[in-house]
Amino acid sequence: MADATTLRQQCLDQMEADPRNYFGGLAWLREAFMTVPREHFVPSRVWWPRPGDDGLYDLIDRDKTPNAWLKAVYRLRTPLITQIDDGAVPTTGPAKGWFTSSISCITVVIEMLRHLAPRPGERILEIGTGTGYSAALLAHRTGPGMVTSIEIDPRIAAHARQRHHALGVRAHTITGDGELGHPAGAPYDRIVSMASVRRIPPAWLRQLRPGGVLVAPLDTPFGWDLTVRLSATGDGAAVGRPVATVEFMRVRGQREVRPYADLGWPADADPRQWRDYEVRADQDGQLIQPTPIPTAVQP
Questions:
Q1: What pairs with residue 277 in β-bridges?
Q2: In terms of CB atoms within 10 Å, which end of the chain has fewer, N or C?
Q3: 104 among known catalytic residues
Q4: Catalytic residue among 44, 101, 102, 104
Q5: Which residues, at least 6 apart from 32, have a Cβ–Cβ distance to it below 8 Å?
C-alpha cells in the first residue's frame, strides 16, 4: 500500500534533482509541499488525463482502487481531471469531453509558486481555486487570512472551502468571475492565476499594489502557454517577462479564439526565442515584443 508521506518525499527528491530547479532553493516552498497533504484536496473520483484505446478518459476511484488513486495523486507531471464540460459529465465512469477543471501537476504548482515568491504577511489573490490545494500552500507561507482565492464554479468552490475547513486552512474562497478579481480585498501584494488568459485582465492590474507581482499563464501563438511574471508600475499597468513554458485550461471568459495581433503579439513571433520577449499590459491591452538589444557603447 502506498504511503502519502513517502510518495511526497519521493516527489520532492525528484524535483530537487531536476535541472529545472523547481524549488529554486526556497526552504519555505519545500516545507509547504511536505506539510500540506495534496491527497486531502483531490476528489475521490478523478479522470486520468490521457485517453485509452477507446478514446475515453479512465475514472480513478479511491474507494475501489485506493492505492492506484494515491499513486496518481503523486505522479509528478500528471494533472488529474476533476471536471469535464463544465460539470455536465458526471464522475461515474470513463468519459470524453473538454477538460474544464483539474488539480494541476505537482511540478507546475511548485514552479508557479516559486516565481510568485510570496512572503509572510502579504495579501495574495489567487484566480482559479480548483481543489484548494495551491491556496493551502500559499496560506502556509503567508499566514492565516492573507489568501483570497476566487473560483467561478460554485460546486468547485464549495469543495475547496470544505477541504480548507477540514484541514484548518484559513483562506478566503470567493465564488465569482476571476477576471474581475476581488476589489474588496485590494490592493494585493501578489496575484497568481491558475488558469490561462489570452489577455491580462485590467482588473488584476488595478488591484495590484505598485511594485506588486503578477504571475499568470498567457496564451501564445506557439501552441502552448507561457508563464509570465509581471511587476505593477503603479498606474494600472505592469511589465515583465516569460519565465516558463506551461499548459493550462483557459478562464471561461476567454475561451473564444482571438487574432494574436489583437492580443499584442508580433506577426513574426518566434517560439524558439520565447525567453527574449517583454510583456507589457495596461488598461487598454497588452504588447508582447522582443527585448531590445542594448546598443554597444563605443570606446
A1: 290
A2: C
A3: yes
A4: 104
A5: 113, 137, 140, 141
- What 3-state class would DSSP assign to 138? helix
Angle between helices 133-142 and 154-167 (to 10 degrees): 50
Rounded CA-CA distance 123/138 in Å is 10
Strands 124-127 and 147-151: parallel
- Read off the pLDDT of residues 164-216 as tens digits, 9 standing for 90 and up: 999 999 999 999 999 999 999 999 999 999 999 999 999 999 999 999 999 99
- DSSP reduced 3-state for 220: coil
Predicted model pTM: 0.95
For 91-132, the DSSP string reads: TTS-B-S-EEEEEPPHHHHHHHHHHH---TT--EEEE--TTS
Q: Class of 109-290 per CATH?
A: alpha beta
Quick one: the chain helix, strand, coil %, rounded to 5? 30, 25, 40
**For the chain, what are the domain ranges?**
4-103, 109-290
- Which of the four pLDDT bands, split at 50, 70 and 90, describes residue 255? very high
Place of cell 527574449: 276
